[in-house]
Design goal:
The structure is a single chain. The protein has about 280 residues and is of the alpha+beta class. It folds into two domains: about 1-55; about 120-270, no CATH class. It has nine helices and eight strands. It has helices at about 5-10, 10-15, 20-30, 35-55, 60-80, 100-145, 155-165, 165-175, 260-270; strands spanning about 180-185, 190, 200-205, 205-215, 225-230, 230-240, 240-250, 250-260. Strands 3-4-8-7-6-5 form a six-stranded antiparallel beta sheet, sandwiched between helices. Helix 3 crosses helix 4 (about 35-55).
Length: about 280
Amino acid sequence: MSCTEIIKHLYEFIDNEVDKSNYLTIKRHIEHCKDCRQRYEFEKGIRAMIKAHCINVIAPKHLHHKILNGLNSIDLENIKQTPEKVIPIPKLKRKLFSARSYAIAASILLLIGGGIFYYTSYVVNTDSSSIVDNVVKNHVNAVNNNLVFNENTSVVGNVNKYFDNNSNRFNKISPQVSLERVRVVGGVPVNLCGTTSPCVIFDKGGNKLSLQIVRAGNFKIKNLERTQIGPKEFYLGNSRGFNSILWVDDGVTYCLTSDINKNDMLNFATTLISR
C-alpha cells in the first residue's frame, strides 16, 4: 500500500477495526516507513492524552435501561409502518410560446428590421445619391451635345437668366435636359420632379464644368460630405468618376459637376457665389 492508503486506514488500524486481510500489510508498512510511523505514534499519543485527562461518565442503570427501551420502541414502529409508495405527479409545464409562435415572431422582427434597413439605406440615403447620379447624367449629356456657356460671370443670377433665355434651345438640342418639367419658382427654374435642371457648361482651360439647379429641400443634402471655405458651406458628392459640389445660395441649391479634382472645383464654385 502507498502512504496515502495507509493514512486512510490508520484510524481503523488503531481501533482494531481494519479488515484482517489488510492488518499485516498496514503494520509492516508502519514499521518500515518513518513518516507513517511518526503519524501513527502521534495519533496514539493524542488518544492516550485524551484518555488520561477526560473523565468517563457512566449513566445510571435505570437511565441506561430507559434509553435501550426507547431505542427498541423506535425500531418496532419503523417495522410496523410500511412506507407509502409516493408516485410523483409530473408537473405540466405550460409553454408560453410554441415553436410556431417563435417562428412567427422572428419573421415579424425580420420584416421590421428589413423595413428599417431599407428605409435608412435607400429612402434616406438614396435621395442624395440619386440626385447626384442625375446631375452627372445631365452633365455628360450636355457636354456631349456641346451645350457650352462661355460667359464670364461671378453671380449665379446671370445663370438663371441664361436658363430663361435658352429654354427653347435646350428643348431642341437635348430632350433629356429639356425644360418641359421645369417651373420657374421665385425667378429660378427648378425641376419639380426632384431631378436637376438643365446644365450650364463652363469651359475652364479645356475642362468642362456644369452648373445645375436642384430644388432646395428635395433631398437630405447634409448626408453628403461637408467642407467649408470661409463662411460658406459646400457639400461633396461623387458618381461614375465625376465630382459634384453643392451649395445653397439665396435659398437655391446649386450643383457644380466635373471630372477635375475637388479643390479646383471648390475654387471655381467660390467665384459663382453671389456677392
